Batch of 3 targets.
Target 1
Amino acid sequence: MNFSEIAKMKSNHISRKLILAAGLFAGAALPAHAQEGMQMPPAQVQVVTAQTRMMAPEMNVPGTVISLNDSRIAAEVEGPLAWVAEVGTDVKAGDMIARIDGRLFDIARRQAEANVKRLEADLLFREQDVARYQNLASSDAASKARLQEVTATRDMLKEDVANARALLEKAEGDLKRATIRAPFPGHVVARLANVGEYLTVGKDVARLVDTGHVEVTLPAPIAITPFLKVGEKVLVQNDHGRAELPIRAVVPVGDMVSRMVEVRLSAEAGTWVIGSSVKVDLPKGEASESVAVPRDALILKGGTRFVYRVGGDNKAEQVVANVGAVVGMWVALDGGVEAGDQVVVRGGERLQPGQDVIAQPATGY
């Protein structure tokens, strides 16, 4: 490349810079009425109507998701463990979760069955013997003492048969109990014994947890129990989601040391993982009538909380949010918003005060 070609390239580069600078200067020099035409386009938002609700002050307490059925399944008979279900196995009520070697139980059952048959055959003979002596005694061909003797022998044999049948029933039950079955549907979450171990009666074999029936348990101060109503919904949340769950029970007995009572909330299976921790908002005072909006309407920027209200001109108006009581997914506002106002619950984070909006009603509130 010669000197003239290099000089030409530098000249073209400088020309492009001058043209770009001139364009930027021309844009900055546009008159005010032209710049007004470059406003932000209307924003798509979802809105909810502010409501008048009975709101009460709340406190936040920790809770835990538990199963209604969480059991350590134990052996009912003794013997070597032949098989146990793998951890994670999903079972239905009545499914086998472990099996004890039942060969000795089968032998005991067959022995008991043979003993019953032997005694029943003997009893049949004794019944015939009694009938024969009754006929002889009626014609004075046999003494009444002999009749009483054979009758007593027959009655004692009846008791032997009844006892033998009970032993047979026990042997059959032991053989049946050698197969350990799930008393309720759930998942095997732990093997508490290994194949080959000799189990005694009461030895834990596996832990079974019912994942289809869950609740939330939490401690609550005794002082707030007057404000806890069975059936009333409270907000439950963790890092993975939130929901309003009804209070199923408030245990009416407190701990003398902690001054706490247990509260149980009904929960849906599959929504919460058993054993996970949650935060629960409980009412701690009397409810009063207030204008309320969903929590999702609150926006925090620069240390200030505010909401966007959409007026009849479809413009976003920023209103400072003075939050009062909180109940579930709704918060009470002290001023600034009236019942019936449309407040933004989706899309408000990117709004600017006075910006045009296209509002659609939100669902799920």
Note: The chain is about 30% helix and 35% strand.
Target 2
Amino acid sequence: MSMFDKLFGEKVEITFTDENGIERSKKILKSDLEQWERDGRLSIMKKNRVNIVGPNGVRIEEWTVGIEIEKESVNKYLDKSSGEL
């Protein structure tokens, strides 16, 4: 932890989707993130990298658990060493 973090608070980078559906990243105070989670003003959605092999080759996508893929499928097919499906 840097001297700045000790004085003003540790920052973390979050990725979020704005009102236009565009994915953005921003650094915020870790204490703010924790407070928003406690207040229920924030929902955290886990994404997993998915390797898809098909007739046109291999492509990689990111799927959101609970939207594009069910948690049970993630538990079943997740590669523990790479964290990918």
Note: The beta strands are 11-17, 23-29, 47-54, 57-64.
Target 3
Amino acid sequence: MRIGDANIQAMQAMEMAMQVSANNVANVNTDGFKAQQVSYETGPDGQGVRVGDVVTISTPGPLIKTQDLTGTGEDIGTVRDYTQGSNTDIAQEMVNQTLTETAYGANAAAVRTADDMQGILLDMVV
């Protein structure tokens, strides 16, 4: 594996995690939406990290009252039914995004450092 390859692989995993989290946040007000979560695994050569799986969280969302606005008089606004809301936890998604952004930045810095070191080495050889 070349210098920085594991970091690039990790950055790709962080990009996927950010996309999944952004989708969860975008659907926070979608009734019945089930949030997803990224799991990571070590690369095949024992170095780096990559996306292991994207799983759907099965915990049910909160029950939301649906109101009947078609009635007349006292019936207007009467609760007629309940629907399940999204199970997205906004606080957890903000934590996930902060951690993902930090991990991405750390790996980007490692790639830049490896690139600089390789450039210095090539300058010494030439």
Note: Strands lie at 36-42, 49-56, 63-68, 78-84.
